[in-house]
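So, read this over?
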Amino acid sequence: MFKELVTKISQNLVTAPERAARLILERGEVSDQLHRALDALKEHEARVAGEVAAARNGDGRPLYPNEQARQAEIHRRLQADGDYQALRQEADRLRQDLREIDAQIEHVSRGHRSDVAAANLVASLLGAGLREEALAALQAYVQGLAGQEKPAEAQAGTQPQEQAQADAQVRDADSALVEGT
């Protein structure tokens, strides 16, 4: 059990930088898409504003003589424009995608730092000859990781059988550490 826990943390240490790099590249792609969508929105707004400013009545005078009237007409036309609304929805979706990717990047980064700290703690404890403490620290860390993966509601409803299995794994790991495996 001890070996499996150390192996899992070691694998996380190796794969985290690659996961972060992939997410950063993905973020760049989504950011580029968002900027293109925002540029298209601005172009659309400028076109509609130009149309409103150029609108004339039968006498050749501006149809919308003051700024407030022009802004109101621009707003009305944009709200009625299906293409413009689709562009806004796309920009909103891309913004949400960026927030989610940023959260994933932060999660990977913090997880990596946490794994490094746990590995250093376990190594220090083992170096000091404190095998039981090292196992306890490792088990607490892994249990903490498992707790993060489940929603809080699911944690509160842990089944007795699942708890018994977790307790058995802890006992097995204790035995393995004491035996030196």
